[in-house]
Here is the input.
Amino acid sequence: MILDDIRQYLRPGLAQTTFCAGCGHGLILGALLRAIDAEKLDMSKTVFVSGIGCAAWIPSPHIDADTLHTLHGRAVAYATGVKLANPELTVIVVSGDGDLSSIGGNHLIHAARRGVDLTVLCANNQIYGMTGGQTACTTPLGAFTSTAPKGNVHRPFDLVELVRAAGSAYAARWPVSRPIEMTRAIRHALQRPGFSMVECISPCPTHYGRMNKQGSIREIHAAMDQNCITPDQAAELTRAERLQRIVVGEWIDE
Amino acid sequence: MSESQARSHWQLRFGGMGGQGVVVLGDTIALAGALSGWHAAGSTSYGAQARGGASKSDVVLSRDPIDFPHVEQPDALVLISQEAYDVYTADEPRPPLVIVDSFVVHPTELGPTVRQVEVNATQLAIDTLDNRQGSNFIMMGAFLASTGILTVEEVDAAIEQKMQTRWWELNKRALRAGFEAVRPRSAIT
Amino acid sequence: MSPSSATDTAKVDAPAQPTSRFVMGNVACAEGALAVGCRFFAGYPITPSSEVMTTMANRLPEEGGVFVQMEDEIASISALLGASWTGAKAMTATSGPGFSLMMEGFGYGAFTETPLVVVNIQRAGPCTGQATHIGSGDVLQVRYGSHGDILPIALSPWSVQEMYDLTIRAFNLAERYRVPVFLMSDEGVGHLRESVVYHSDFTVTNRLRGGPQDEPFDTVEPDGVPPMPRFGDGAKLLVTGSTHDGRGFRRIDHPDVHDRLVRRLVDKLEHQTDDIVRVERYHLEDAEVAVIAYGFTARAAWAAVERLRERGVRAGLLRLQTLWPFPAREIAALGSTVKRLLMPELNLGQLVLPARAATHTEVVSLTQVNGLAISPTTIMERLEAIR
Here is the structure.
């Protein structure tokens, strides 16, 4: 049904993705391709750049366009080179939270500061999935991981606040349980000149879900959805309380 | 002078504090040499800081292609700080010619093999040019008069090629003031 | 012999000749890059290489190119890799600490066959070391510093003229073989001021773009260099630093694909040493002892050999203009004609290791790591002692 609309953007010959059952990354791929379809992007002039990790495989090899699967953390720096060397190309970065904001955190904030016209999709599953469920800089306080067996003791980054403070033109956050809003946000990010980031909250049932006893994927999506609050609701909370919730919406630099 | 002009190889060292302008002096004389048909090489040595600390600018001028472009034994030293004087005149063998700005350097006895030329360049710059920054090219003029290696006009050409127009007049006047300050003594020597 | 490999540079502004200028080696390097068509520079400030970057910041926009100052050296080489896939000739310049950071980008460039040029103005390491002083302690790092089996191309200039000429050559080799190429210079040459001719009578090599029938990551051609399409031309490229097949698909569990890829990437350079490796020979016809030297140290070796010749000592010099692939054949040939070899280096004896492996003749190592250039006198004394 819906798949038919976006199948034209998938690289021929690929039977399935490598994502685990219940992983949210396929939903992010769907949202991205629907946004691309709606924006009528010329796929021969669009380059997808990713780093290392599960989310880096969202565009590579699935999307039937130029893809640059780079080194861990460096996607934004490579993308900066692509965009500056050929400004006619639309450059979209798709990578994970660890890749973009931990090992690549400096590249992320400097790209936001520099204002290079990039659209960055951060697939945030709040954990290192590919390497076996280690703590990320986005793991919530108290959450269990393979490197925090008694619960995470370090505060997570608020990635939207991070890139906004660094000067992003556009930032948004939606969970994969709200694909329509996520698709709309990606469209807005593509329309907006300068540095844009959409943080896509994505479940990792294999590691995060299992270690934190989150239950079935249906339960995970329901809990994720119920955890969403608006910026107005967030304003009523303390910083510590906010970091336990998913503040959804879009933040535009006027 | 004629003996000086006959030399086919010069090793020159300009020493001072970082930021004082010894690199400009070295670059200018090296460029003037290159523009006048010499093979020329310039190199600098300095600390990590942009200002202060010992700094030197070495120049080799040769009638033949230059194999090793660093200064091994200077034939002449131009020194515009006490620290540079203390450091670079201590090298053995002693350099045959040492030219100092006596406003900032207090020369010591270096023995009979060393000819020391004292120019109160900073005072001269204040008195005659009304600009303390002219002292460097006063030292350059004194250096030309003491060595005969290049003419004032040959250095003018380098100034014009290397520097912004607003510096030309000051530096050319300074060059001549330094040259005149040393020339009579030079002739006697 | 002259360190200016192009033309007589004594004449300045000679009519109908390219203009001779008196500049720093780092400036000549930037001008060479511009002359051969470099149109992208990304970098991060570091002594003693910064003049390459500041020259590019001023000159690249004049030539229609792009200059960007990145947040660190990893970002710099990463931006080059991205830019190169758009078809741009790209360069960065750095020194020891930044060079260490760039090793990961080198690995990516070699494995994805991405042409670019990295200039290393070597200073006295290890670590932060002596930032403003000369060293050549990175000549094994460039060979072995990135994980896995990678063979680099590394060139070593000894004059300001060669900072211009070898930068041009570095780009041509990068485009010819689809590899990162290193200009392994040093503080002595980078900060040296000499006359240089910005001549334009050189060949420019450009990467082949290929057609739809070509695979961008494998080839049956004997040179082992596939054509390289660029982003935006509809090739739907799959570029990855993981093991990949000829079309670029990740093949991370296929032993044969990995074996073939790793071997081809090394072989495509090792089989081309006739083209890549260059040395210069001075007074070697009748030499009984010879120096093997590179970079600024080769200038001291040249002076030492000339002075010994004046005293009747039959000394000679083999100057390495290419460091990697290593000139093993040239050293083997030299070893068979002299009694003993001397290798002065501004490190604790790095390239003397492959030199000793190349010849049965004794290669004496002269090392100096005090931040100062090796003097002609030091080399003369050692040569006299071993002859």
Observations:
- The CA atoms of residues 128 and 151 of chain B lie 22 Å apart.
- The longest helix of chain B spans residues 168-188.
